[in-house]
Amino acid sequence: GAGVSQSPRYKVAKRGQDVALRCDPISGHVSLFWYQQALGQGPEFLTYFQNEAQLDKSGLPSDRFFAERPEGSVSTLKIQRTQQEDSAVYLCASSSRISGRYSGELFFGEGSRLTVL
Amino acid sequence: KQEVTQIPAALSVPEGENLVLNCSFTDSAIYNLQWFRQDPGKGLTSLLLIQSSQREQTSGRLNASLDKSSGRSTLYIAASQPGDSATYLCAVRPGSARQLTFGSGTQLTVLP
């Protein structure tokens, strides 16, 4: 696609519910990142995929957070038993390797705003 | 641990003024530095990417500089316009990792 697409754009969940957030990266981008952004703050890293391999999940705040990218394209971030502190914008980003050189430029989606009541 | 600081947190200027946004980082061993723009309720739009071997990048009215040794980057916006109003975020990629570390941003308001 032309850009990184995320859905849903807005999600309201009751405390304790499970949610799933979807990211469709730019076609052909091998690297995919998830970030969490609290109000008034910069994004914080959650996890990173290269193709289908999850190479870094050091930023996931608890074992209630789980991400997957089974076919190396679309990714899903799942949050189980949501808590109020999970309320944030969840941003997905992708990047590519160009001509054997990793440019490192990240392209972000518009985010999924999660509100936990 | 890499820390990124952006000063000021908020800035208001009249239209037409040239301005500078500042970004500092604690660990100079970076792979690259990227400036983003974020409009309210929106995602991040990449403005400029500076590789560690570069000193500056330019795009239209924007110019970003990088001084790795002092841990600083500046984003210069020439002839500011009301449409430039947004939050500007600086992010660095450490040499040893793929993810970016972000500052908290500078919220810019350009008054008509």
Task: Note the topology.
The complex is a heterodimer of chains A (117) and B (112).
Chain A: E1 5-7, E2 10-13, E3 19-24, E4 31-37, E5 44-50, E6 53-56, E7 65-68, E8 75-79, E9 88-95, E10 97-98, E11 101-102, E12 107-108, E13 112-116
Parallel strand pairs in A: 2-13
Antiparallel strand pairs in A: 1-3, 3-8, 4-5, 4-9, 5-6, 7-8, 9-12, 9-13, 10-11
Chain B: E1 4-7, E2 10-14, E3 19-25, E4 30-38, E5 44-51, E6 56-59, E7 62-67, E8 72-77, E9 86-94, E10 101-102, E11 106-111
Describe the protein:
The complex is a heterodimer of chains A (117) and B (112). Chain A is an all-beta fold and 117 residues long. Chain A contains no helices and 13 strands. In chain A, the strands form three sheets. In chain A, strands 2, 4, 5, 6, 9, 12 and 13 form a seven-stranded mixed beta sheet that branches. Chain B is an all-beta fold and 112 residues long. Chain B has strands at 4-7, 10-14, 19-25, 30-38, 44-51, 56-59, 62-67, 72-77, 86-94, 101-102, 106-111. In chain B, strands 2, 4, 5, 9, 10 and 11 form a six-stranded mixed beta sheet that branches. In chain B, strand 9 and strand 10 form a beta hairpin. The radius of gyration of chain B is 13 Å and the shape is globular. The mean pLDDT of chain B is 94. Chains A and B meet through strand 5 and strand 12 of A and strand 4, strand 5, strand 9 and strand 10 of B.
Which structural traits does this protein have?
heterodimer; A: 117 residues; mainly beta; seven-stranded mixed β-sheet; four-stranded antiparallel β-sheet; B: 112 residues; six-stranded mixed β-sheet; five-stranded antiparallel β-sheet; 59% strand; globular
Short description:
With 117 residues, chain A is an all-beta fold. Helices cover 0% and strands 50% of the residues of chain A.
Order of helices and strands of chain A: EEEEEEEEEEEEE
Radius of gyration of chain B using CA atoms only: 13 Å
Helix content of chain A: under 10%
Rounded mean pLDDT of chain B is 94
Portion of residues within helices of chain B: under 10%
Gross morphology of chain B: globular
Number of helices of chain A: 0
Order of helices and strands of chain B: EEEEEEEEEEE
The biggest beta sheet of chain A is recorded as: 7 strands, mixed
**Main sheet makeup of chain B:** 6 strands, mixed
